[in-house]
Amino acid sequence: MATDTTIWHAAFPSPVSSPSRISREELHTRLAAGNRDIQVVDVRRTDFELAFIKGAINLPAHSFYPTLSGLVPILSRYKQVVFHCQSCSTTGRECARLVGSRMH
């Protein structure tokens, strides 16, 4: 059986934004302090059901691009949006780049 090795975001236009990173320690500190200007977006699929960051919303990466036009007005209400994917460093960053490209 052949497997599809295509990268999920390869079918979408290349984003032009370069989002900054935040350390897990800084994110924890800000969330623990009750910072309401930050929103965490967990871009995992079913892993979210097992464990998640309190207050995070789940928007799976593979369905992210088609919903951007509705997401941008909602996410733009926050001073900072953090995209989280526990299993790799690429998925969250690519979602952040897609949103950032639409917000600027």
UniProtKB/TrEMBL annotation:
InterPro entries registered for this protein in UniProt: Rhodanese-like_dom (IPR001763), Rhodanese-like_dom_sf (IPR036873)
Domain Rhodanese: 34-98
Pfam family, one: Rhodanese
Protein name, UniProt field: Rhodanese domain-containing protein
Organism: Rhodocollybia butyracea
